[in-house]
Design a protein that fits this description.
By secondary structure, the protein is an alpha/beta fold. Helix content is 46%, strand content 11%. It has six helices and six strands. Strands 3-4-5-6 form a four-stranded parallel beta sheet, with helices on both faces. Helix 1 links the parallel strand 1 and strand 2. It is globular.
Length: 213
């Protein structure tokens, strides 16, 4: 279980998981914006366990970047975290994943193909991650499967400009007319990890049908 600054939360979650299955979870700290730390993270995991059979890239930076106010720092944080880190982690773990005929699941965003106003750089980073997912699926075959899960509306953005009216407008565009849950996303990841040996290079939308509208 990777964390960056949320050490207390990571320790609490690890403790909870270890009560369910003793010794099943360990935590590892790394700043994923730093390429060297991505490689070290994989080395630390391999030193602690027998190997890596699945890599779930779900760390993400998410904040608005109005087109009138782009900054180098925003570009760097969004692209390094959302695109470069998944690439570097998959690259570092490739040998072990190949040995175990494992898989990679990248967490995308169903809204990347239907851009949200003021989130241009974020949308770009997730669209590029979808392309990277298919590239890795091709490059890493046949030993390693690589897929993506693209959540739709799961949690509302922590954005003061995204109020009740915007929320209602979004819900009206979702055929299932409700938010999804974190459990919905987790179930999709488990499916692609455990129950889909003949699926690779695919993006599984968990969006309540939003892509249909």
């Amino acid at each position: 279980l990777h964390y960056n600054r949320s050490a207390e939360d990571a320790r609490a979650l690890a403790a909870e998981l270890n009560t369910k299955r003793e010794g099943s979870c360990r935590i590892f700290q790394a700043e994923l914006n730093d390429g060297a730390q991505c490689g070290q993270l994989v080395e630390d995991v391999l030193a602690a366990f027998d190997g890596i059979k699945a890599l779930i890239n779900n760390a993400s930076a998410y904040f608005p970047t109005p087109l009138s106010e782009p900054t180098d720092a925003a570009w760097d944080e969004l692209l390094d975290t959302n695109l470069k880190a998944p690439y570097l982690l998959a690259q570092a773990a490739r040998h072990s994943l190949s040995e175990h005929r494992g898989c990679v699941v990248n967490v995308l965003d169903a809204h990347a193909s239907k851009p949200t106003r003021n989130y241009a750089i974020y949308n770009l980073s997730k669209s590029a991650l979808a392309d990277l997912t298919q590239s890795l699926a091709l490059e890493y075959s046949p030993e390693v499967r690589v897929n993506g899960v693209a959540p739709g509306a799961i949690l509302w953005p922590e954005d003061p400009d995204f109020g009740e009216q915007q929320q209602q407008t979004m819900l009206e565009k979702i055929p299932l007319a409700s938010l999804g849950t974190c459990q919905d996303v987790a179930a999709a990841v488990v499916f692609l990890t455990m129950d889909a040996p003949y699926i690779t290079g695919q993006m599984l939308a968990v969006d309540g049908g939003r892509a249909l509208t």
